[in-house]
Amino acid sequence: MLLRHTPKEIKERKALMINPAKTCQPIGAMYAALGIKGCLPHSHGSQGCCAYHRSTLTRHYKEPVSAATSSFTEGASVFGGQANLIQAIDNIFTVYEPEAIAVHTTCLSETIGDDLPQIFDKARKDGKVPEGKTVLGAPTPSYVGSHVTGFSNMVKAMAALAEPSTKKNGKINIIPGWVEPSDMEEIKRLCAMLGAEITMFPDTSGVLDGPLTGKYKMFPDGGCTVSDIKASGSSIGTLALGEWCSADAARLLDTKCKVPCSILDMPFGLKATDRFIDVLRTVAGASVPDEIVKERGKLVDMISDMHQYFYGKKVALVGDPDQLISMTEFLVSIDMQPVHIVTGTPGKKFEKCITEIAEEAGITINVKAAGDMFLLHQWIKNEPVDIIIGNTYCKYIARDEDLPFVRWGFPILDRQGHQHFPTVGYKGGLRLLEQILNALLDRKDRDDPEEKFELVL
Amino acid sequence: MLLRHTPKEIKERKALMINPAKTCQPIGAMYAALGIKGCLPHSHGSQGCCAYHRSTLTRHYKEPVSAATSSFTEGASVFGGQANLIQAIDNIFTVYEPEAIAVHTTCLSETIGDDLPQIFDKARKDGKVPEGKTVLGAPTPSYVGSHVTGFSNMVKAMAALAEPSTKKNGKINIIPGWVEPSDMEEIKRLCAMLGAEITMFPDTSGVLDGPLTGKYKMFPDGGCTVSDIKASGSSIGTLALGEWCSADAARLLDTKCKVPCSILDMPFGLKATDRFIDVLRTVAGASVPDEIVKERGKLVDMISDMHQYFYGKKVALVGDPDQLISMTEFLVSIDMQPVHIVTGTPGKKFEKCITEIAEEAGITINVKAAGDMFLLHQWIKNEPVDIIIGNTYCKYIARDEDLPFVRWGFPILDRQGHQHFPTVGYKGGLRLLEQILNALLDRKDRDDPEEKFELVL
Amino acid sequence: MGKAHKLVQWDPHNVKEKLLEKYPAKVARKRAKQIMVNEAMENSTPEIVANVRTIPGIITMRGCTYAGCKGVIMGPTSDIVNLVHGPIGCSFYAWLTRRNQTDAKNDTDSNYITYCMSTDMQDSDIIFGGEKKLEAAIQEAYDIFHPKAIAVFATCPVGLIGDDIHAVAKKMREKFGDCNVFAFSCEGYKGVSQSAGHHIANNQVFTHVVGKSDTEKSGKFKINLLGEYNIGGDGFEIDRILEKCGITNISTFSGNATYDKFASANQADLSCVMCHRSINYVADMLETKYGIPWIKVNFIGAEATAKSLRKIARYFDDQELIDQVEKVIEEEMPAVTKTLEEVYPRTKGKTAMLFVGGSRAHHYQELFNELGIKTISAGYEFAHRDDYEGREILPSLKVDADSRNIEEIHVEADPQLYRPRKTEEELAALEKAGVDFKSYEGLNPMMPDNTLVIDDLNQYEAEKLVALMKPDLFCAGIKEKYSIQKLGVPMKQLHSYDSGGPYAGFKGAVNFYLEIDRLVNSKVWKYMKAPWQEKPELSATYVWE
Amino acid sequence: MGKAHKLVQWDPHNVKEKLLEKYPAKVARKRAKQIMVNEAMENSTPEIVANVRTIPGIITMRGCTYAGCKGVIMGPTSDIVNLVHGPIGCSFYAWLTRRNQTDAKNDTDSNYITYCMSTDMQDSDIIFGGEKKLEAAIQEAYDIFHPKAIAVFATCPVGLIGDDIHAVAKKMREKFGDCNVFAFSCEGYKGVSQSAGHHIANNQVFTHVVGKSDTEKSGKFKINLLGEYNIGGDGFEIDRILEKCGITNISTFSGNATYDKFASANQADLSCVMCHRSINYVADMLETKYGIPWIKVNFIGAEATAKSLRKIARYFDDQELIDQVEKVIEEEMPAVTKTLEEVYPRTKGKTAMLFVGGSRAHHYQELFNELGIKTISAGYEFAHRDDYEGREILPSLKVDADSRNIEEIHVEADPQLYRPRKTEEELAALEKAGVDFKSYEGLNPMMPDNTLVIDDLNQYEAEKLVALMKPDLFCAGIKEKYSIQKLGVPMKQLHSYDSGGPYAGFKGAVNFYLEIDRLVNSKVWKYMKAPWQEKPELSATYVWE
Known about the structure:
The complex is a heterotetramer, with two copies of chain A (457 residues) and two copies of chain C (545 residues). By secondary structure, chain A is an alpha/beta fold. Helices cover 46% and strands 13% of the residues of chain A. Chain A has helices at residues 25-33, 47-61, 74-79, 82-95, 107-111, 116-125, 147-159, 181-194, 226-231, 243-257, 270-284, 290-310, 321-333, 348-361, 373-382, 394-401, 425-447; strands spanning 17-18, 39-44, 68-69, 100-105, 134-138, 172-175, 198-200, 237-241, 261-264, 314-319, 337-343, 366-368, 387-390, 405-407. Chain A has a five-stranded parallel beta sheet with strand order 12-11-10-13-14, sandwiched between helices. A four-stranded parallel beta sheet of chain A has the order 3-2-4-5, sandwiched between helices. In chain A, helix 1 (25-33) crosses helix 2. The mean pLDDT of chain A is 98. Chain C is of the alpha/beta class and 545 residues long. Helix content of chain C is 43%, strand content 12%. In chain C, the strands form three sheets. Chain C has a six-stranded mixed beta sheet with strand order 1-12-11-10-13-14, with helices on both faces. In chain C, strands 3-2-4-5 form a four-stranded parallel beta sheet, with helices on both faces. In chain C, helix 6 runs parallel beside helix 8 (165-176), helix 9 (194-208) runs parallel beside helix 12 (276-290) and helix 10 packs antiparallel against helix 21. Chain C is globular and about 90 Å long. Chain C starts with 11 loop residues before the first helix and ends in an 11-residue tail after the last helix. At the A-D interface, strand 1, helix 1, helix 2, strand 3 and helix 3 of A face helix 3, helix 4, strand 3, helix 5 and helix 6 of D. Strand 1 (17-18) of chain A pairs antiparallel with strand 3 (117-118) of chain D, so a sheet runs across the interface.
């Protein structure tokens, strides 16, 4: 057994986290920052953080991930990191020539109390920030929230770049939240089909799903431009996808630029996508084109065609709040039965959302925020499931418990496809169904006794 | 063992086919005919043929498949099927009101020598064919060739509808061959991106991948209209994808309407897609847009990222000639090693094509046309492989020999996705890579000893 | 389909009119006779026309004679090599496409069900004749597999070009000595449906196999189970129950059948007929030639299963057996009742339509009744009038041209093996006691009044029927499945279930209850409309947060 | 990268200029000292600056002290609970992300490598201190797992807020009695790279674990293997060979290590150092405190492996062992030679660049030499000058501020356990015989003339270097992999191999030959241009069939 020391009996833990279902803020901030065109993320802390975040993102995307660090030494930790950061800004603009630098803090710089705005001012005064270039920053203390919080904080820092304006440009801001490049691409495709003019940030499509051409671009073609982000203050409204990932930024746009917002669930699955499209067509004053209706119909069709294999199957889920909420709703809507759900991100609100879905469906779900995968595994030992859905770390549970496993979420370190094929929208729903189905049917084909081995499923 | 009677020792067989890698012509003709808008396929034979073809296509697509039959009785078999067919034409146009009826023959009607053109004339004379409606027919004797031949014959019958014309309309005819609706969709998308105006027939997209909406349309919105097919005689040229599926129709367009043609491999994999795009941009006089170049680059990127898992892996393949040729080229191009390839469709030319690819790559491949899956299984027993790629019937071999299995080809009766996600083009190549990779890595994760069980792949 | 639509009122005669209105006159006339309103008429029961030709061009649910012979009857056998003589298609399409299960337990047992064998006729064979190739194929099959028996099936062209498959079979049978080779002239164009194929299969199995076993079969209460094909494991469940009761099933025709079981059928003391349509010929011949009486049974439905078991016990007239049967029923019913009570509130009051086979449209109504689901229309795909109106009308049936072409074999009492199992008196007594021999009452009596009984329902009528009568569930075959579901009505395959099973016996009833609950209560049917289709209006100003 | 480009001529000094030209003056000056042209100079060898601060903002390959301590040294241990005190991230990122293998054979053996444990510090802990939480976490870990030992690691904030992790460790250790608890002050901001973390780990393991075992380890030729981390199973292959030779490996630091193996290290009679950079501290301390001499070995490369085995044998000066070692080499080499002969024609003449670790950039040149591949540029990520120029320059090294912060522990001969393994005379004799004790010559001597040795290569320089010198292969870590491959140059990870391995020993050499053959000869590098990019012109009229 790989996780041979995990006992079935559950003891409450107050201090020890085992096999986390979250990581720290800065990596989220780094991922978000990569969604700005020509932006170099910068980690204000000791160099290890940056190395770890780059490695994890690189393994997830199998793509180069560039980011700089202030490389704190013991001295800097005592006397403050201003000198390091200003030197870094100078070096970065000189050597890499990005359009923008997106700085996020770390537990280190937060603990010693470095003040980014003040350091940025100094850098500008010292002429270290070339004309027309942008420096933005987000406080991302690792000891608060999770990687999701860090993502949200950096997106909020983007929103802070927005410039108030009295005349609207007719556009709609879309804050997609922490989804894959392929998902962002898909969201743009749906908006375009609907004829909605949008500004989407962050946008990692074209950044972390790059081609192999013999050229290396440290700053790929993708991403939302700083000027578009600035102009987002002139939009008619903001659709924020995911309370945890996107709401803060949307609300800042509201308070700062009077751009009203709507917080929606991430468009995973049929119903959440329905709501997204319905709101989008309403605010865009457009009617939904047949093509989208058809895509929707295909998703409903596959649910009905394969319903006998989904029906009543028990699921264990681990991931991030916004994704899990939509996924849970989707699973319930196809008559599957989520029974254990864990996120590492804190927040009772998450447990409330899941419980509401469960109650509406008349089922009970074990749910925990600020939980860990050790607990999830123990829950599974106590009430077995038919399939587990989550990031790559689930594979250890899946192998020990001999469970079908669908990789979904972050990080996925051992398979390809997530960066190329969306799981948002109706088409994404088709892919999710296909993946769940393959996992369940592969297992059926493996376990069916010979006389029940089926040609037609 | 499911195939417990299959011996390792190979005895030559002259008369007995066991576990075929083909079926008969009519089903191909029926599938092709579904690619004409508002067309009802009609099987001129006893009703069992039609029932079998509809069942198989329905199980493959999980979609309604309408087709009529002449329901031969013993009497008809003796006195000829003219009366039945004329009555059928009358009933069909009266009850179902299709735009067209596409009749294909069967071993029965061919053996007794029914003459379709003559029967059609009679039907027209008798006023059974309403004004503006079309009746077309293809001879598809089950005892010649295979389902691929039948597909080709019906497509040729479509080409026969084309009307010669002196003034060209600037369009390009694309004959996609027997690919999935999703593939046809993808081919259209690529052409549109390239700005090439095309007429594609047959086109089953929108026909066999329909939505669930509460309405049933016997004739869905998809398909190539009869008038477009007629106008294909005014096109500047024809690109026929696949010698076996599409060449005859293309050549008929050439001889009949002086529309020149090019026979290309089906665009599966990098190189075949490269050739398709390169020819298309040439005949369309267009330059290839960045978007396509990017899609291509992503495919190359994934090949390089995951090359260590493809390299040297031995593959057994079964399917149809056009698809197998492109797939073999693709597998070789990513440094995999096809070792056994079987098609049920006759034709030494196929063996020659495969052997050429093998020689160019400096490998040897066991290849057989007019072969069967019994032989393929015996080959595998004599030289084991790492993965098998083919239609659903491979699952029996895969389970007995404990092989990773990628479903690709026709029919796929036990999984979903093929009708929604293309495998042609660069995006299709990404999907193929993903599927092969999942099959190989799932096996690795299953078999790795615990100390070598990997988080990162 | 939203609940709103569920209260539609319909009158069966109106519905019938609507089904017919679009047809050409000739077609309308013909179909009118096959669409019957099930209603009381003074001193006569309504008649229905069945087992007549399919109308060319009218999209039918039916298959062909080959399908009935090779696909349905012989397909489920495990240790007989089924070799199809013809072009490849017919053999390919019948390859593992029905969910017949075979449990050749240990790896040394023969099981050819996963194999598809064909002579793959080419044009040269059509021109010069295929006998040589057939002979060679039989030889190759023998050399590779050394089976107990090889069954040869003719497809359309074979009859036309005049290959004498029986002569070839005979020649090879004699040549091998240790392998019984026999053939079926089941060309697809024969008859009007699969039904003819059943008949042909019955004849040949009876002629070439039954009675050929010399091993003595032991057992106190020996029966044959006729017309059970072990789709989804139905037969396994029935065998489980029979065994538990102490009843020995000598031979099932033909689910999970072996050559030896067929050959021993003559050793049973009672034949129990499940699917009357497909196998009653064998039942009759077993009685005539060996003196084995037959009764109709039905193991679809918990109550029906109990009833059938009691009937068998009563036939053997043995108190021990009678008690054991009661004990078994008592043991099995609680699980059934428990599930039923759980799902009944969700299924009760729903409506269903059944258009399947030659008995399932009848048998499955037992299960639907248990679920409180009303069958508002039903019919068969390939039945004869007696399957609707009962065997008592058999004498009044005229044999038409199509039926006449199907060989009727004449059997008589076997000089050695004929042994009447009961005396005339015993039989009479049993009849009195309610053991009705050689009797089948048919579908119609089971149907509620003013429902529609429709023979050979076609695609066009099916769609109309659903649109007009809006059932909660429709049952037919794979070809019909998705056109019905596109209308938002769940569709359950009842020939070869699309999935699940067994549905026979007690465990089967439980499975079926749960399956129907799943189908009629699946959330997916609520999703057919998108929100913007429900409420298309654009609220002038969107209410932001 | 098409062959066409392969003949580029470059002068190392030009390349160096190009690497520096874009830097701000200050950066350029600093980097100039870390980029060395390896060339003969009259009576002096070129110097290089190493182990100095990373430049803020310059994208570095380096990690932090925590990574060196927890990730590299302690991570590979199997039965020690590694508990990270800090916010969740540091623990998460070091969770199974290095391919250290552990073979806790039977399920009862302890193996915590798949577990990630952390105190998950929250803001309240930062404000009010985290000692209480750490104490509680240790208690919970003890209650759930009952491990032999718990190792606590500090991350950045811990030092800043002043948690005394050593006091907490001591308290719990004494409380438990049966579980050794010890801590590492390896905050990420310490030192200038992972290297500081190695040193800290060495000190604590030596202080708290080594010598603590009371079980007597048997074996005629007992060694420790220092600085081998069992990435991809390297250690397994080395152990296989040692065993075959009859050499007992008491303790590997730290691949597949167990608490007890560490604790018994003092029982070995020779320490063999693989990665000099990460572990030489332990080697020195083992000698000082227990009298165990150490030699540098290298099991990367078949020849190097043979050489190292002979060196060990010579040390033990036992004919039987010497013969056995020769026998093993003789047995193992044929497979190596066979594969080499097969791939050599395809690899010979290619060029490579290596920028890894503290010894791999050196060791792997052995394998590349065997393949006929020339290393045209190399350097370390976190090495010190002695790793480049050899230990003889150690005395001349000044300790800078950053190094001064890393505790140097003072050890002296253990009153009970110190036991010189050889007399001065023996040592001297062995030295003469070529067994060079406490000696490491460094990377530079191995590099061909006029190649570039670059310390702490960064992303910008790497890209430039590849563009200018166009190597056939580049070796570094995961962060560098894809930016290099985007340029069309295959990239092999040599810290924690991206896949494959083992590459150590004889079998490892075979694996490496095949892997490099795959990389440099993969077809994919030919596909970077589409046909229409190769021939963009539109042939006026397309030639139809």
